[in-house]
Write a structure and sequence with these properties.
mainly beta; Jelly Rolls; 2 domains; 7% helix; globular; binds calcium ion
Length: 283
């Protein structure tokens, strides 16, 4: 009987560890206490305690706010014009795994916001996240900076690059040899007269983007639609490609998706008698 408490305590520890690792992604759908976020909620230091250890502020002194799919002010979206063809209020493209909430600035789509700075309580070696809807010639730069504010590494995200576009979640990721990242700075680098909002989501404060593992793609027909569902490594990116013929298939990119648990689904209208689909992990 004496060994029982020990056994239970090790099981309990394993459960806690599993929970802590999973909890490190900030998806802006809920706060650390589990309460759902609301549109317009100001985000500053709610995630400053472990396991996150981060706080958020724009360089002009303003704080970011939660924005929701469908949100608008005076006929303009609160974060971005989403698909089709940038006509909808904060609507992500399908299969982007961004839920219904993300971090934005407090204005409607308007002049570019000041750079957003994420400050760490304790420095980290890795971090990753997504910026939604990089289109219309827009571009962003994400910098990983040390305690003195020097840029250690940076990622440029530009309209026209892979994994950018209308409502698409574009990834950035850092993995440095040592825990030197004291802040992350997200800067709009497009034209100063662009009408944009920030839409930042699925922030992993201390982990780089996962490497895509094995993927399973399933297709089924429903009336005039093909429903594709993909099971892969959560938060890893997969390119969905299509071809018209099994003989010498000429694969063309259809879209990219961000895998989520348990699966991502996409609906496609049937355009031809035969169509092949495949999913390719993007590293
Ligand atoms: Ca989200
Ligand atoms: Ca945009
Ligand atoms: Ca758009």
């Amino acid at each position: 009987m004496k060994t029982m408490p020990k056994l239970w305590s090790s099981i309990f520890n394993i459960l806690l560890l599993a929970r802590a690792v999973e909890a490190q992604k900030i998806d802006f759908e809920t706060l650390p206490n589990g309460n759902p976020t609301t549109g317009g909620l100001v985000i500053s230091n709610q995630f400053s305690a472990p396991p996150y250890g981060v706080s958020f502020r724009f360089e002009d002194g303003k704080f970011p706010v939660i924005r929701k799919v469908g949100g608008s002010i005076n006929g303009r979206p609160t974060a971005f014009w989403g698909p089709p063809n940038s006509t909808t209020f904060n609507q992500p493209a399908t299969g982007q795994n961004v839920g219904t909430s993300f971090l934005s600035d407090s204005d409607a789509v308007d002049e570019p916001p000041a750079p957003l700075v994420v400050t760490y309580a304790q420095p980290v070696a890795a971090a990753s996240g997504f910026i939604i809807d990089i289109d219309s010639d827009e571009s962003w730069r994400v910098e990983a900076r040390d305690a003195a504010g020097h840029v250690l590494a940076q990622v440029e995200l530009k309209d026209g690059d892979h994994q950018t576009g209308d409502g698409i979640a574009s990834p950035w990721s850092f993995a440095l040899p040592a825990a030197d990242i004291q802040s992350i700075r997200i800067v709009f680098t497009g034209r100063p007269d662009d009408l944009v909002g920030l839409a930042f989501d699925n922030f992993s404060p201390a982990e780089s983007l996962p490497t895509p593992g094995p993927v399973h793609l399933n297709a089924k027909r429903e009336a005039d639609n093909i429903i594709l569902s993909l099971v892969g490594t959560p938060l890893a990116i997969y390119r969905i490609e299509q071809a018209n013929s099994a003989n010498n298939p000429d694969w063309v990119e259809l879209t990219s998706v961000v895998a989520s648990s348990p699966s991502v689904t996409l609906t496609n209208t049937i355009m031809a008698e035969q169509r092949l689909f495949r999913a390719v992990g993007v590293e």
